[in-house]
Amino acid sequence: MIGNDWDEKLKIIWESEGFKKFYKIIENEYATKTIFPPKNYVFNALKLTSFANTKVVIVGQDPYHGVGEAHGLSFSVQEGIKIPPSLQNIYKELESDLGIKPSSKGDLTKWAKEGVLLLNAVLTVEKDKPASHRNLGWELLTDYIIKVLNTKEEPVVFILWGNFAKEKAKLITNPHHLILTSPHPSPFSARYGFFGSHPFSKTNQFLKEHNLKEIDWSLDK
Fold first, then answer.
1. What is the Rg, in whole angstroms, of the alpha carbon atoms belonging to the chain?
2. N or C: which end of the chain has fewer CB within 10 A?
C-alpha cells in the first residue's frame, strides 16, 4: 500500500479483518461524500518518510477540512493555499528558535523528506466537518505506527503539541527516545507555552548528541 518499509512494518494491520472492514467504510465515504485529503494522498506521510528514515514525529489531529488544503501531512497545506493560523505560529516559533524566516508557502513536504513524519492521528475528514472521522478506526493504525516507532533502535524525537497529541505519550515507553510537549500552536493556546518552547533547536541538539543528521527546517532553499 505504501511502497517502502512501512508495508512490512504494518503488515499485521493491512492484513487484519478489522482494518479491511474499516477501510471499506472509508472507501464508501469517498464514493458518497466529499472527503479530504484526495484519496491518493491519504498515506502521504508514510510514503514520504519511511520507517528507516524517520528521525522526528510531529503528531497532528485530523486533516484540514477545506477544499484544496489537506495532502496527508500534519499541519501542512498544498501549494497555493493560504497558510493556516497554527502553521503561521509554528513558523513564528521556528524564526524565534532558529532564526529561520517564515516561509511564504505552507507545504511541509521538504520536512517529510528530511525525516520528519508528519502524522495525523486520523487520516481523513469530511468536507467542512472537522473531526468527522474521529473514532471510525484510523487510531488503530496510527497508534500502532507510534508503537512500531517506539521499538526503533535509533533514537526518535516525538513532538506532541496540545492535549490530544500529548495523549500519545503513553505509547512511547522506550527511554532512548525524546518526547517534547507543549501547548498547541493554535491561536487559542500558543501564547500559553508553545511560543518559547524551542522544539526545533531541542530536536536538532538531541539528534546531534546521538550522531544523527540534524533536520534542515528551512523550507525555501
1. 17
2. C
Dist CA 74 CA 71 (whole Å): 9
Predicted confidence at residue 1, as pLDDT, reads 83
From residue 35, how far is each of 41, 78, 140, 160 by CA, in Å? Answer: 11, 16, 20, 26
Considering 5, 7, 62, 143, which one is annotated as catalytic?
A: 62
The C-alpha cell at 62 is 485530523
What is the pLDDT, as a whole number, of residue 92?
A: 98
DSSP 54: -
| Distance (Å, whole) CA 41 – CA 135 | 20
Q: Which residues contact 170 (CB under 8 A, 6 or more apart)?
A: none
Residue 107 annotated in active site: no
By CB atoms closer than 10 A (0-12, 13-18, 19+), residue 60 is: buried
| CB contact at 8 A, 93 and 30 | no
Spell out the residues 6+ positions from residue 56 whose beta carbon is closer than 8 angstroms to its own.
115, 116, 117, 156, 157, 158, 159, 203, 207, 215
DSSP conformation class of 217 = -
* pLDDT at position 195: 98
Residue type, 112: A
